[in-house]
Write a structure and sequence with these properties.
Length: 132
Amino acid sequence: MLPSSGFCAPVKIAVLPWKVNSPEEMAFVRDAMRDMLTSRLGSNKAVEVARPDLVVDAMAGRGGAVTDALALEVGKKLSADYVLYGSLTILGSAISLDGRLASVGDSKVSPVYSKGVGLDSIVSMVDKLSND
């Protein structure tokens, strides 16, 4: 009998582009969200993160808001086990992270939420989300 540790395939997760709601242009925050989540999740040997360019290709031609159905469809295209997506709202110094983790296998979607103060808090919110 083989030991269970080290012989299991990693869980594959696709990180979709995050929507940023802010009165100011915050494209750099949107890109940073994807990059931070991808690097933190990918640092765990038990997790394989879908390449961002493949995620973009899988979403091609699908404008508008990301819905649970779209996230699951993209996850199936990428052969992912999970899809992580959501939005970040920035109003003054208040920051709110509203994410969703979709399980492609059973189509269950779990909400994740975090709040902080100031742009610097985004890093700790992403760290917490990645660890959870």
